[in-house]
Amino acid sequence: MIKTIIVGPRGKMGRLITQIAANSEELELVAGVGPRGRDYIGQDLGQITMLGRDLGVPVVDDLSKVIEACDVIIDFSTKEMGLEVLELAKEYEKALVCGTTGFNSVEKDLFRQAGETIPMLYAANTSKLVNVMNKLLQLATAAIGEETDIEIVEMHDRWKKDAPSGTAKEMGELIAHELGTELSDTAVYGREGTGERKPGTIGYHSIRMGDTPSSHTVLFGGFGERLEISHHSTDWRGFAQGACDCASFLAKQSAGYYSVADVLKF
């Protein structure tokens, strides 16, 4: 069994990951780690994640106290907590799956560099279907990217903190690299005023409303026709299952920087 620690177990993703991992034949939960000062610290992981039963697994607020007991860490917490987890994972040489978003380019580089010493997998989205969509985007961009106008529309719930979403940014980066450029040089975030669309740009539009789990559509607009590639989720269970699959994969790897594509063998 792969001994696993969940960071951020009370969040929407953390709860689902815990529920799936608790029933996994490969993963064994050994601890949950929450932010300092939360009222559920010291309680059982199964109870705080609404599993309906005790797991005999503690929730603590100090990862360093439990990290030696694990083989892999799954972190879906916050940007600030995620950077702390990264440093401890490197110090104790533990495999780390991080699905937290909101990091800037410099911070993302820290995760890539961690792959030099530990098995590291950073993914803005761990859904299998989203990663299939990413492959389709690469194919479409290679075929028609230079002759179409590309727009990305993403929807999330009202509580989503970052915009555009990490998944939408990752899609834009894939498209930009396929076109031989950088997203930072081509992205346009929303529009107002007057003027024609600048050729070669990638447009972003972020919608935040209600409890919409996640929706991403990339449009390739030509003349007289357009192609739309979309992924819509009704809940986050697919992302949570993907995170557990990533943890099972990563715990068996040597040091390196991995992606969900590696897990899925794309």
TrEMBL record:
Keywords: Amino-acid biosynthesis, Cytoplasm, Diaminopimelate biosynthesis, Lysine biosynthesis, NAD, NADP, Oxidoreductase
Tree of life domain: Bacteria
GO molecular function: 4-hydroxy-tetrahydrodipicolinate reductase; NAD binding; NADP binding; oxidoreductase activity, acting on CH or CH2 groups, NAD or NADP as acceptor
Pfam families given in the database record: DapB_C, DapB_N
Keyword Metal-binding: no
Record SUPFAM superfamilies: Glyceraldehyde-3-phosphate dehydrogenase-like, C-terminal domain, NAD(P)-binding Rossmann-fold domains
UniProt KW Oxidoreductase keyword: yes
Binding site for NADP(+): 53
Gene Ontology terms: biological process: diaminopimelate biosynthetic process; lysine biosynthetic process via diaminopimelate
Domain Dihydrodipicolinate reductase N-terminal: 2-125
GO CC, alphabetical: cytosol
Location of the Dihydrodipicolinate reductase C-terminal domain: 130-264
Pathway(s) of this molecule: Amino-acid biosynthesis; L-lysine biosynthesis via DAP pathway; (S)-tetrahydrodipicolinate from L-aspartate: step 4/4
Subcellular location: Cytoplasm
Residue numbers binding (S)-2,3,4,5-tetrahydrodipicolinate: 166-167
EC number(s) recorded for this UniProt protein: 1.17.1.8
Residues annotated as the enzyme's active site: 156, 160
Residues reported in the UniProt entry to bind NAD(+): 8-13, 44, 99-101, 123-126
PANTHER family: 4-HYDROXY-TETRAHYDRODIPICOLINATE REDUCTASE 1, CHLOROPLASTIC-RELATED (PTHR20836:SF0), DIHYDRODIPICOLINATE REDUCTASE (PTHR20836)
Role noted for this protein: Catalyzes the conversion of 4-hydroxy-tetrahydrodipicolinate (HTPA) to tetrahydrodipicolinate.
Assembly and oligomerization: Homotetramer.
Name of the protein this chain belongs to: 4-hydroxy-tetrahydrodipicolinate reductase
Gene that encodes it: dapB
